[in-house]
Specification:
Elements lengths: L4 E3 L17 E3 L1 H27 L1 H8 L5 H33 L1 H19 L5 H4 L2 H17 L2 H12 L5 H29 L2 H8 L1 H5 L1 H13 L5 H9 L9 H6 L2 H32 L4 H29 L1 H24 L3 H25 L9 H17 L2 H12 L4 H19 L14 E3 L1
Parallel strand pairs: 2-3
Antiparallel strand pairs: 1-2
Helix pairs in contact: 1-4, 1-7, 1-8, 1-11, 2-3, 3-4, 3-6, 3-18, 4-6, 4-7, 4-11, 7-8, 7-18, 8-15, 8-17, 14-15, 14-17, 14-18, 14-20, 15-16, 15-17, 16-17, 16-20
């Protein structure tokens, strides 16, 4: 019997569910903590790269693109960054079904290797002045590797934690996945912010920009070590035991057509989650600088401060979802963005540090309603046999179509209409779609995952 689980007596009283006839799984708290750490570290590494790339984009434009136009260089740099979003759904379609076939742990080890290799490789690419057009092509190739691996990362990590966690603590434990996201972004952006005054412009341009990317190598080795030490999740192990031989393959068509209602709910929830996420963490610094002519350094520091506040609140909000349910917390976030987006953006437009900080903090605390609840709510939409695959597809398609395009769409809307309140209207529209998805979803707090036995904590 696995050290990760033991089987409780059949006389234990269970919540009625499709798997109520099966004995419950009793989890080992030490192994659950290891699983959470290993999963969250991968998410932290993904967003470490995101923070580094976003904050050092101007320097990367000078290193990899020859144009003397700073705007063209920046657009080219972000074009390479955006290319990763195009291959995310492809990565999800490959890694998701594979995770349902051979196991979550094995696939998450592969995605960790690919993410670390892609980020580390960027730090080794010669500049345009050395190898010419090969430099931006290698940068694009590294970004595509990162994007492809990311397609299997979030869905796999959230599935891994959800399947390891006891039913009554799934929200709290799942919230640490997004804690890793915030920690990674703050680590990457903070490192670049710290390096900027310490290095001269020439030092940053010649070799300093490589340091944050090269750090991904050791981080990847640590993450891989943690993930390789883990056993397969109890839920997946139970699915394998049901089959006399190998794990039966679930066709990609079944993951989509057979789960279309859950996929639509997933995409609606991910839409409001990621539109508001990318609006706050990616677009708002540019909005403060380019549209409101706010000091760039102060704008970045305000965003980092808001993220630090979110990190503090995150575990408590995750525990709250275990007590009151995922639906009320997500619904509160949708209602908040619907009714408070305009006041928050009006505050931000005042321009003073206090007003900007208050408006950004309000949006950040509303976003915590999603970051705390989604890692446990999304895996519960799908049965164990196709959870990784269906969630990967729904999550990555929604992120690519709506989340990653948020800065571009909002900038275009402001340019077309001249209306500086477009960020608020866009978040409000997303909140309406998310609210409808919450209305249609079932509550999952304190209940077994679909297709799995109840999970208890020893």
């Amino acid at each position: 019997m696995s050290a990760a689980t033991v089987t409780a007596p059949r006389s234990v009283s269970l919540i009625k569910s499709p798997t109520a006839a099966a004995p419950p799984t009793v989890t080992d708290p030490a192994l659950v903590k290891r699983a959470v750490k290993a999963a969250a570290l991968g998410n932290a590494m993904e967003w470490f790269d995101f923070g580094v790339y976003s904050y050092i984009a101007v320097t990367l434009g000078k290193v990899f693109f020859p144009s003397g136009n700073p705007t063209a260089q920046l657009l080219s740099t972000f074009g390479a960054f955006a290319a990763a979003f195009l291959v995310r759904p492809l990565g999800g379609m490959v890694f998701g079904p594979l995770g349902d076939r051979i196991g979550r742990q094995k696939v998450l080890a592969v995605t960790m290797i690919m993410m670390a290799a892609g980020t580390f490789a960027i730090g080794l690419i010669p500049s345009y002045s050395v190898i010419g057009v090969g430099a931006p092509l290698l940068l694009l190739a590294a970004r595509l590797v990162q994007g492809f691996s990311t397609g299997g990362e979030y869905a796999g990590a959230s599935t891994f934690i959800a399947e390891y966690a006891p039913d009554k603590r799934r929200g709290f434990l799942g919230s640490w996945l997004e804690f890793g996201t915030l920690a990674g972004y703050i680590g990457g952006a903070g490192l670049v912010t710290l390096m900027t005054p310490l290095l001269s412009s020439d030092e940053l341009l010649s070799w300093g920009w490589r340091i944050p990317f090269l750090i991904a190598g050791p981080m990847g080795i640590i993450g891989l070590y943690l993930r390789m030490r883990l056993e397969e999740t109890p839920a997946f192990a139970a699915e394998v035991e049901k089959a006399e031989a190998d794990r039966p393959k679930v066709p990609l068509r079944e993951m989509i057509a057979g789960q279309w209602k859950a996929l639509l709910l997933c995409m609606g929830l991910v839409l409001v989650f990621n539109v508001t996420d990318y609006m706050l963490l990616s677009y708002m610094p540019s909005y403060l600088t380019s549209e409101l002519h706010y000091d760039e350094t102060h704008g970045l520091l305000v965003v980092l401060g808001v993220m630090a506040l979110m990190m503090i609140v995150q575990p408590f909000a995750g525990a709250l979802t275990d007590r009151v349910g995922r639906r009320p917390v997500i619904a509160a976030g949708c209602a908040g963005f619907l009714f408070l987006s305009i006041p928050a953006v009006l505050l931000i437009r005042q321009g003073s540090l206090a007003a900007v900080g208050l408006g950004m903090a309000a949006l950040g605390l509303l976003l915590v309603c999603f970051t705390a609840a989604m890692p446990s709510a999304l895996p519960a939409l799908f049965p164990t046999r196709c959870r990784y695959g269906s969630l990967s597809i729904g999550f990555n398609v929604s992120v690519s179509l709506f989340g990653g395009t948020t800065p571009l769409v909002v900038t275009a809307l402001i340019g077309a209409t001249g209306n500086m309140m477009m960020p608020a209207y866009y978040m409000m529209a997303a909140a309406v779609i998310g609210g409808f998805a919450v209305w249609r979803m079932s509550e999952s707090a304190g209940r077994p995952l679909p297709g799995s036995a109840p999970s208890l904590e020893s």
